[in-house]
Hints:
Layout: E1 2-8, E2 13-17, H1 22-28, E3 46-51, E4 54-55, H2 66-70, E5 73-75, E6 80-81, E7 85-88, E8 101-114, E9 117-123, E10 137-141, E11 147-151, E12 162-167, H3 173-180, E13 187-194, E14 207-212, H4 216-228, E15 235-241, H5 250-259, E16 263-269, E17 281-282, H6 285-292, E18 300-305, H7 307-319, E19 327-331
Parallel strand pairs: 1-7, 14-15, 14-18, 15-16, 16-17, 18-19
Antiparallel strand pairs: 1-2, 3-5, 3-7, 4-6, 8-9, 8-13, 9-12, 10-11, 10-13
Bound molecules: flavin-adenine dinucleotide (FAD) and FE2/S2 (inorganic) cluster.
Amino acid sequence: xxxxxxxxxxxxxxxxxxxxxxxxxALDAGFVLPYGCRNGACGSCRARVLEGTVDHGKSxxxxxxxNARREGYALLCCxxxxxxxxxxxxxxxxxxxxxxxxxxxxxxxxxxLADDVMLMTLKLPVNERLAFRAGxxxxxxxxxxxxxxxxxxxxxxxDGFLQLHIRKIDGGSFTGHVFEGMQVKxxxxxxxxxxxFHLREESNKPIIFLAGxxxxxxxxxxxxxxxxxxxxxxxxxxxxxxxxxxxxxxALAQSWADAHSHIEFIPVLSEAGEGDQWRGxxxxxxxxxxxDHADLAAYQVYACxxxxxxxxxxxxFCSRGLPADEFFADAFTFAA
Length: 336
Ligand SMILES: Cc1cc2nc3c(=O)[nH]c(=O)nc-3n(C[C@H](O)[C@H](O)[C@H](O)COP(=O)(O)OP(=O)(O)OC[C@H]3O[C@@H](n4cnc5c(N)ncnc54)[C@H](O)[C@@H]3O)c2cc1C
Ligand code: FES
């Protein structure tokens, strides 16, 4: 059984088999729809079903509450068709420059950046490169079909090795292994590049970058890409952490601001202790943005980190005038 899907307003069509995920079928058909976690948790792929019915699959209530379902919304990374559908959603320009690949890689280096943050450097097979956009992520493909997502921290031009910033999760199976058992030279397999969280280079709006913890990784990739490509839009980078150790590349971020007059760096600690010797900003990082901006209408925002921070920033920034379609985010959700 197959169903016809029509995307609005573009009028693009594609077909899906019964049980096939709507997002995957759209991507396979060459239509790029916004997405992040691909496990029904971040809400990036939310779209409105104008006609027809869907099965919401493993969509999580946080990203798709009951009232949103009643209003016809669906998460396309989880939903399957139960009839022909007409779906209203934003489409992004397709590009053949960044094909999705499955690749083996070797762990080249493991360096602790903080007690709970590891820099993992990956080497690709000889003569292989991963073409990606600054801000995108890869998914490790583990035994038993499990997947774990991590953002690329290196900029696309600096692609001799891939770099990831991996935070240790209490009770986490993969990140626990990274910190406790993993050895240099271990072979992993990943799929990528994934996601639509990347720098929109066609815009010339001033940018606010917002990162919580290892949410720094894709922001680092974007800022280094922007510097490399001589993009001189004003950029303010707010990086939040509980304590100073969590700003594990503070000197690097400060060096961007020192060397480039269009870049500002505003580190913010929420639980600074005496040992931190902190004289900088305190509180929640997205609140610091609100304290500094009465009106966000002219800005573009790129936010990355814990889902709670992303949700709060989206709501509060839009209520300060930020257009909803100028808020780009990757929420660091767990695999379903
Ligand atoms: C697009 C994307 C990009 C990401 N990029 C990065 C990155 O660059 N750096 C980084 O550090 N992290 C990143 N993450 C988060 C990272 O993928 C997770 O931290 C990782 O998958 C955890 O794997 P694990 O096997 O260690 O934990 P798991 O074994 O999957 O689970 C960890 C712990 O969380 C609990 N848990 C599981 N599911 C949930 C849930 N839904 N809610 C609450 N608790 C739960 C489990 O009980 C367990 O204790 C990203 C996530 C996404 C979606
Ligand atoms: S909820 Fe669908 S991509 Fe995150």
